[in-house]
Amino acid sequence: MAYRCDNCGRRTQYGQTGRHGRGVAGGRWKKRAPKTKRVFRPNLHKYMGVKLCTKCLRKVKNLPVGRRVKSEVRVSAAAAAA
């Protein structure tokens, strides 16, 4: 199963790691290690059998009770379509 939010589609992203800049006195940092990609993973949680990122989980939790059922149906329908 993919590491992905079922509601918004947020997934693992890749980017450059931070590198050492110039020092306080303008010294030189010798780059001994090779540059590698860093992995940025969304903060996923299981909510009623659906994987949701933290942002979507907060949205679903804060909905009124009457609207919560509709949003869960919409989320589960989106999960079934994927």
Automatic annotation (TrEMBL):
The lineage of its organism: Bacteria, Candidatus Amesiibacteriota. Keywords: Ribonucleoprotein, Ribosomal protein. Gene3D superfamilies: Ribosomal protein L28/L24 (2.30.170.40). This is 50S ribosomal protein L28. It comes from Candidatus Amesbacteria bacterium RIFCSPHIGHO2_01_FULL_48_32b. One of its GO terms (molecular function) is structural constituent of ribosome. The keyword Cytoplasm does not apply. One of its GO terms (cellular component) is ribonucleoprotein complex. InterPro entries: Ribosomal_bL28/bL31-like_sf, Ribosomal_bL28_sf. It comes from the Bacteria.
